[in-house]
Amino acid sequence: MIQLESFLIISAIVFSLGLFTVIYKKNAVGILMGVELILNSVNLNFVAFSKYVDAHINGQLMAIFIIILAASEAAIALAIILNIYRNRASVDVTQLDEMKH
Amino acid sequence: MIQTALFIWLLPLAAFTIQIFLGKRLPRKGDWVSITAIGISFVLAIRLLIQALTHFDPEFVVTASIPWIDLGSFKINMGIYLDNLSIIMLMVVTTISFLVHIYSLGYMKGENYYNRFYAYLSLFSFSMLGLVLWDNLFGIYIMWELVGICSYLLIGFYFEKDSAANAGKKAFITNRVGDFGFLIGLLIVFTTLGTFNLSDIHQSISQGVLSGGLLTAAGILLFAGAVGKSAQFPLHVWLPDAMEGPTPVSALIHAATMVAAGVYLMARLSFMLSFDAMLVVAYVGGFTALFSATIAITQNDIKRVLAYSTISQLGYMIMAIGVGAYTAGFFHLVTHAMFKAGLFLASGSVIHAVHHAMDKTGEHGDPNDMRNMGGFKSKMPITHLVFVVFSLALSGIPFFSGFLSKDAILGGSLAFAIAQSNPIHYLLPTFGFLAAAITAFYMFRLIIMTFYGEPKKPKLFEHIHESPKTMTVPLLTLAFLSLYFVYTIPSLNPVTGEGGWFYHLIEKPVSAVQLQLGHAVYQMTEHAEHLAHVSGLMISIVLALTGILLAFAFYFWKKINVEALTEKIKPLYLLSLNKYYVDEIYEATVIRGLLLWNDLLAWFDAAVIDGIVNSTAWIVRNFSVLDGLFDKYVVDGLVNGVGLLISGFGKGLRRIQTGQVQNYVLGAVLGTAIIIILTLI
């Protein structure tokens, strides 16, 4: 039987990878993918806790919500990125600093 | 009774308020408002008099008061003091005021500012009645000043004329001199006794709180107010000039009521006069009586003769108070008010006629000048009749009211002189008797010049006619009130008023000074009174008749040549004609002195005060330059420094805001990590 800790470790690794991606990647699409990783690490946690700690399926329901949310978020984010690309022919986030100061 | 008195007092005020604001828009310019108000006051005053007569008690007094000013220890009540003296005074004021209101209907018809004239008359009635009614000196002082203002306004009623405007100013300023004394007297009384109330003052002085020299000073200073208002020497100069006002005003204010206010005040305050103060009062009065009578002989302006005669008669009243003939003095005030108001109104009737005749014939000249008159008897029978009645009363001929009162004063002064150990006090009755003879002389001179002889200007004479009913009815009323029996009822004795209602109601109040000293203020014996009474009676009748006979001898029968006589005593004649040069002396001393003083003060102002002000300004200006520099460099430097510091700090902080989303995320993550670590620790 796989222990809860294993899930949590995997989830933490995935979260860290996602966070690293979000911070490190210059490509907006890459950042989006990092965000997906973070969301999915959370999903993993929910499902794991649902299985081992709680007898109900509340956690799994929440995971389904998050999947739906992630899908819609990806749709909106991609639309924004597409617009940025149309305007500036680039998706490099380091160049998107007009709002500073 | 208090309510009645309040109504009498306040109705004219209501009329004044209506008149001054609405008078112009009311029908007939609102003269009926004032007349109704004073008419009701008159009727109510009659009611009060009847009540006083039914009580028939010399000590009858009603008072009522309410707190007015209350500032810690400074308390003044507002109240009414109603005794026989004030009731009779109310009667006099309302009677004459009412008659003058009616008379003015005819006299002032068609004048400019007609409504304002009636408004002023109402205001005057209010002030005068207030002066009579108040129970404390503070209120009396207020009303005293108010009547002064009314006098000023009414003398200067024809203010387009320079002479009238100046006469108003002269009256006001001269009065101020006396009023200043009054004010100091008031302050002495208040600081020593702590009250203005008449009864309280009487009580305090009886107990000796105020005595000796200070009491004498207070008495004389309060008398100074009366000297101003009652036109006694040396402040008499304003009254003759006051004749610039309309004649009804001269009758009401400058003959009968306001000028009597000084006498009334002295009658009210006679209880606090020490012997020395009484002597001052008596001598000022006696001297004025003779002094102005001698001026009246030579005047040609009909109203000026009457004005000097008024001053002279007021002198009698003041002298009466001074020699302790209290009842006689007040009696003379009442009788004089009636016949002198009458004389003025009658002279107004004459002037009115001459004025209209001048308008018709186009002749120019002074309508007041008796040298333009003569022979008016046939044209103005009623005016002539009343004029003779009034003059007989004024001259002191038996069967007329003036005789009773004047004889009482002369008797009083003679008794005073006889009873005193110092023979110099015989001067007082001498002044009085001489003035009495002169009075008779100048009054008949006036009558003969106006009503008898040949008309001096025949063309003018053609157009002279009797005045309208509104003018003659008041004259006839006053003539009736100048008959002796009005004052002696129930007795009909023509030589003394002592059996009459007046003498019964007005009794000399117990002197507070006498209570304080424990003996009489001045010596008086029954023997002296009796002797003075009999001899005074004889002498005064003889002197009055002599005066009248002399007037006829001079001006009617022409037995004595006037021109030749005046030529012989030219210096004396000029002295009298020019009023003893009192005005000129004042011009040379007081006025010139004041102007010099003015110049000196102006110089002081320009050189010293302006210098101080200018140098202060210079110092302030230079100081402000320094201040400006300080402001510019130190204060502004501080402010700018703080600004620079903050903007520099902001610039540094701005670096953090890179615009790189990932930096922010990193920041957020690190921040969260730090918080977690801190919580774990």
User: Strand content of the residues of chain B, in percent?
Assistant: under 5%
How many domains of chain A? The number is 1
Question: H/E element string of chain B?
Answer: HHEEHHHHHHHHHHHHHHHHHHHHHHHHH
Oligomerization state of this entry?
Answer: heterodimer
* Class from secondary-structure proportions of chain B: mainly alpha
The CATH architecture of chain A is: Orthogonal Bundle
Number of helices, counting only DSSP H or I runs of 4 residues or more of chain A = 3
Helix content of chain A: over 70%
DSSP, total strands of chain B: 2
Q: Kindly state the mean pLDDT of chain A as a whole number? A: 88
Largest interface: A-B, 13 and 10 residues
Strand count of chain A: 0
Q: What is the helix content of chain B?
A: over 70%
- Could you name the CATH class of chain A? Mainly Alpha
Q: Main sheet of chain B, how many strands, which sense, barrel? A: 2 strands, antiparallel
Largest sheet of chain A: none
Low-confidence stretches of chain A: none
Cα gyration radius of chain A (Å): 17 Å
Helix and strand topology:
The complex is a heterodimer of chains A (101) and B (681).
Chain A: H1 4-24, H2 28-52, H3 58-88
Chain B: H1 2-22, H2 31-55, E1 61-71, E2 74-83, H3 84-107, H4 114-133, H5 137-155, H6 162-193, H7 198-206, H8 212-229, H9 238-241, H10 247-256, H11 258-269, H12 275-296, H13 302-322, H14 326-361, H15 381-395, H16 401-419, H17 427-451, H18 458-462, H19 469-480, H20 485-488, H21 501-505, H22 512-517, H23 526-556, H24 562-568, H25 570-577, H26 582-654, H27 661-680
Antiparallel strand pairs in B: 1-2
Helix pairs in contact in B: 1-2, 1-4, 2-3, 2-4, 3-4, 3-10, 3-14, 3-19, 4-5, 5-6, 6-8, 8-11, 8-12, 10-14, 11-13, 11-14, 12-13, 12-17, 13-14, 13-16, 13-17, 14-15, 14-16, 14-19, 15-17, 15-19, 16-17, 16-23, 17-23
